[in-house]
């Protein structure tokens, strides 16, 4: 029942994007059903962002669907084959920096079977967004991602739990050293896997100022990005200065530009739903 | 003139006399500075009666790549008498290292060893710092050098993703011994995981010659397991917030200055310790058992502000330079004299002095060790 409803919703979500894209998204039913089974339904709710305007410490998040797993290198390879403008040797430099897919043996080879099963990394925000659009989806927003990621195996709101935080810190510390073992990230109560500790993930609005790398040098963009991010000033205005996992995620996002392609940074896709 | 006379002679008179006294002191100080070694670009002796607003060097001659050293080693003294461009290549590497016997910890390091590499430049140098973050790093890092005059001590310009590099330049305006550390949020975690080191900005006139220089940096670790509990230990945030360290150590590990890593000196030599404190929380009561510090450059400043000191405070995120001659063979013990830390948490190091004994300095006459005379 839930699956069916989701399928309809994803079709709806896909429709306007299909017209915008050169390639219409038309799938047979069974493909949609497979897509749905790969997504988890996240019900509407609230979460507390790390930095919030006074009086807005609780942010409402509408129901949405989220990929159960990060997009794999193999899946990204299939996308690049369908959309050669996203090959590393053809991509426009405004959309991806020089490290884009640089860990692949060649522009059309993502490596061994094992390598293709790992999360896709060294993918820019533009490329991740294009991938999701090609599937009739989009990147999750920061609010959506954080909301889904505050769930543990048993609780939807484990973000305040000290033991859960300690676990996340330990998982994050191992990122980059364990990209090849996605299984180490746990499956949360929504059925979403490996949100923590395998790769960091792109979000749609990873920074409210989405500028390219050069903006850092020019001043205003850099100011906006670095505002809370060094030394003790990071604690100023934070809703919970003890939420170290959230600070780490925030610091990662702050280091990104939309062209950035870096190791240990992957993505998964989301889709909007409507409340029935 | 006694204080009592001053007091009896009345308020106004005592004030005038005090003023006169300080004026003479200031004059003497100026004369003593004028006698210092002159160097090629030596600025006029700093007059701290007026707070200086400093200018970067107008002439930068040549370029060199800084020699960075692993503790306890210190790069050689600078013999240049002019300002130059110094390139500092610092690599952030996250790696699992020994914290104590059988105890490992994933350290976040500046340079792949603990504490971070020692940087030595000269007052007036133009430093170009290249911060590289290893591609296997889990997260972005940056650097805040306390020697830097500029936004975040460089932190604002150096947030570096895994596999990336940041470059910024600064003028070494103020001489002194400074701590540097990572300042990426959450800062306490980055520091608790080992991200600190030191940069020495040598004064233009250089430092007095000594025979041995060592780099010693204290810091704490907050682990899930108890002191000595075997295996890979992770950061215990709660202990950090409560300032209850499991380990207090010199140079990143229990025993990093003992056994075959004991510091070495010979009788008759002059020793200088560059002492830093990475924190993240504790102040160190730095003491060397069996010695007296002849000179202490308090808080890493450039004046030997005190002589004949037993124990000196080293603030978290701060430093001190201590100098002493060694007169007697044997083992000197470096400790944080908040003594439970030395006894139970690891804050203990050794300096072995070899050479000919001098019984006049010290001799045991009667006791359990039998005595030597």
Short recap of the structure:
The complex is a heterodimer of chains A (276) and B (373). With 276 residues, chain A is mainly alpha-helical.
The CATH top-level class label of chain A: Alpha Beta
Helix-and-strand structural type of chain B: mainly beta
Relative strand content of chain B = 35-45%
Radius of gyration of chain B: 23 Å
| Quaternary structure state of the chains depicted | heterodimer
Summarize the structure in words.
The complex is a heterodimer of chains A (276) and B (373). With 276 residues, chain A is mainly alpha-helical. Chain A has one domain (30-271): Alpha-Beta Complex (paralog of FGE (formylglycine-generating enzyme)), CATH 3.90.1580. Helix content of chain A is 34%, strand content 8%. Chain A has helices at 2-20, 29-37, 73-82, 113-117, 125-134, 142-149, 162-173, 215-218, 220-226, 244-254; strands spanning 39-42, 45-47, 59-61, 64-67, 200-201, 265-266, 270-272. Chain A has a three-stranded antiparallel β-sheet. A two-stranded antiparallel ribbon of chain A has the order 2-3. In chain A, helix 1 (2-20) packs across helix 2. Chain A is globular, with a radius of gyration of 18 Å. The two termini of chain A are 13 Å apart. Mean pLDDT of chain A is 80; it is low at 1-33 and 209-228. Chain B is 12% helix and 36% strand. Chain B has five helices and 21 strands. In chain B, the strands form four sheets. In chain B, strands 1, 2, 3, 5, 7 and 11 form a six-stranded mixed β-sheet that branches. A six-stranded mixed β-sheet of chain B has the order 12-10-14-19-16-17. Chain B has a five-stranded mixed β-sheet with strand order 13-21-20-15-18. At the A-B interface, helix 7 and helix 10 of A face helix 4 of B.
């Amino acid at each position: 029942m839930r699956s069916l409803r989701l399928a309809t919703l994803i079709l709806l979500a896909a429709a306007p994007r299909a017209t915008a894209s050169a390639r219409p998204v038309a799938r047979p039913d069974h493909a949609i059903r497979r897509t749905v089974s790969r997504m988890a339904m996240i019900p509407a709710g609230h979460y507390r962002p790390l930095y919030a305007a006074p009086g807005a410490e609780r942010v409402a998040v509408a129901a949405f669907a989220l990929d159960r797993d990060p997009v794999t290198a193999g899946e990204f390879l299939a996308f690049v084959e369908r959309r050669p403008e996203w090959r590393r040797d053809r991509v426009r430099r405004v959309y991806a920096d020089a490290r884009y897919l640089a860990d692949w043996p060649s522009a059309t080879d993502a490596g061994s079977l094992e390598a293709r099963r790992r999360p896709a990394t060294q993918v820019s925000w533009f490329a991740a967004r294009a991938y999701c659009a090609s599937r009739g989806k989009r990147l999750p927003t920061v609010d959506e991602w954080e909301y889904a990621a505050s769930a543990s195996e048993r609780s939807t709101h484990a973000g305040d739990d000290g033991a859960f935080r300690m676990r996340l810190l330990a998982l994050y510390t191992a990122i980059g050293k364990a990209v090849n073992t996605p299984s180490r990230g746990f499956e949360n109560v929504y059925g979403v896997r490996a949100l923590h500790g395998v790769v960091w993930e792109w979000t749609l609005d990873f920074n409210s100022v989405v500028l390219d790398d050069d903006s850092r040098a020019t001043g205003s963009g850099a100011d906006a990005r670095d505002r809370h991010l060094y030394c003790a000033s990071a604690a100023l205005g934070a809703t919970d200065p003890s939420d170290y996992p959230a600070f780490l995620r925030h610091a990662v996002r702050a280091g990104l530009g939309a062209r950035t392609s870096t190791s240990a940074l992957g993505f998964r896709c989301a889709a909007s739903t409507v409340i029935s | 003139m006694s204080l009592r006379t001053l007091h009896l002679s009345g308020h106004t008179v005592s004030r005038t006399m005090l003023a006169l006294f300080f004026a003479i002191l200031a004059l003497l100080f100026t004369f003593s500075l004028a006698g210092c070694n002159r160097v090629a670009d030596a600025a006029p002796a700093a007059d701290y009666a007026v707070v200086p607003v400093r200018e970067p060097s107008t002439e930068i001659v040549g370029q060199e790549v800084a020699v960075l050293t692993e503790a306890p080693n210190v790069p050689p003294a600078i013999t240049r008498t002019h300002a130059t461009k110094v390139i500092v290549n610092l690599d952030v590497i996250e790696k699992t290292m020994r914290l104590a016997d059988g105890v490992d910890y994933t350290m976040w390091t500046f340079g792949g060893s603990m504490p971070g590499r020692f940087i030595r430049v000269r007052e007036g140098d133009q430093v170009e710092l290249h911060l590289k973050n290893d591609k296997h790093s889990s997260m972005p890092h940056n650097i805040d050098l306390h020697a830097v005059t500029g936004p975040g001590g460089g932190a604002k310009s150096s947030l570096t993703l895994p596999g990336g590099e940041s470059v910024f330049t600064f003028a070494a305006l103020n001489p002194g011994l400074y701590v540097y550390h990572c300042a990426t949020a959450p800062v306490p975690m980055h520091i608790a995981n080992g991200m600190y080191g030191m940069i020495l900005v040598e004064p233009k006139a250089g430092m007095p010659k000594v025979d041995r220089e060592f780099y010693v940096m204290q810091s704490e670790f907050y682990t899930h397991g108890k002191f000595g509990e075997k295996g890979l230990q992770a950061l215990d945030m709660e202990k950090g917030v409560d300032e209850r360290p499991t380990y207090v150590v010199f140079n990143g590990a229990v025993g990093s200055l003992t056994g075959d890593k004991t510091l070495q000196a010979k009788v008759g030599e002059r020793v200088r310790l560059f002492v830093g404190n990475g924190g993240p929380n504790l102040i160190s009561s730095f003491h060397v058992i069996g010695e007296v510090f002849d000179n202490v450059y308090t808080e890493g400043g450039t004046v030997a502000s005190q002589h004949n000191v037993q124990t000196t405070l080293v603030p978290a995120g701060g430093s001190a330079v201590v100098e002493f001659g060694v007169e007697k063979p044997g083992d000197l013990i470096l400790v944080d004299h908040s003594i439970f830390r030395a006894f139970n948490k690891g804050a203990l190091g050794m300096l072995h002095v070899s050479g000919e004994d001098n019984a006049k300095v010290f001799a045991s006459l009667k006791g359990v060790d039998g005595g030597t005379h």
